[in-house]
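Field: sequence (string)
Field: structure_tokens (string)

Example rows 1 and 2, in order.
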Amino acid sequence: MYPPLTYAVAAYLALVAVLALVGLRRPSLDPVARQAMKIGHGATALVVALDAVKLLQGHEVANQVTHIGYMVAAVGLPVILLNQQRPEFDDEGNALRDEAGEPVMTPPPHLAVVAICAVAMVVLVVRLQQTL
């Protein structure tokens, strides 16, 4: 793969984790941390896509199942942890609506979840590089 790119993405994700943790004390950083995580997820997807191209070109890895597992986890983890917004329901199962008639959505995941996800992605991206 491309070690400088991979380690740059890992460093960026570590920075996102720190930013999310600081955002716990400074709520004004909340949208910045969430946007930075989206960018980090995109950068991770780019690294995984480049790795997939390299595998399709015939590059052999020691344990292909483990390597592909890291690829899937690196892209899928933020999707699972951070895309949990859905409509709120009352006790009878009816969707809650605001004054404008729009459904009330659940709050976004806590910034601590964003930080943990970013740290986990750092580990996954580095392990992806190391298993090549």
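Row 2 begins here:
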Amino acid sequence: MKINMKKISILNLLFPLLLVLFISCSKDSPEPEEPYIGNGYIKGNFGSEYLTYTEKAVTTGGEAWGNSYDPNINGGELHISRDGTSPDQRHISIEIRNIDLDNLPIPSVVYGEQAPRNKNGFLAAGGVGLYDPASVPQGTSHFGPEDSYNYMGSTYEEGLTVRVTSKKNDIIEGTFEGEIKTPTGLVKTVTNGEFRVKIIRKE
């Protein structure tokens, strides 16, 4: 029986190409992006509570706030905040200062000396708060030494960690965890914190 060496050579050339095509076709297609719905969210375990806040934060005058990035203050400040749904009057706020959002590597960890630096060389630093100003008794100063209602934590002093995992289309996504505390020393441990909020740029 004669062996057709020409056909074997062609098959040898085609086999690697067919193998590459087979592997590429068999790969899972990329997961579709999660659509941005409503106002986004900030959520997580705060002590014994699991909170999901989706309402835009507003001032007493009704003006929306806590939804922006301003490159001109605090070395570049990212601020996102979401309110609870009535009757829950609390709100969660996340702030990161000294952040150059356009050049921020993804992912970025904002925690102590590990944090990225802005264009001026300053370390990014942030904080997470669970605030309940409506519950502060009359005559008690908000964030004063007798305030047991407003919880705060810092990425530099209290060991809180904030991670920014995406900034595509100015939809800021990430996670947070650590401890937040009141001025009187009450502590909540935060776990599985997540945020996904579309920000407005201020110039």
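free_text_note (row 2): The first helix runs from residue 5 to 26.
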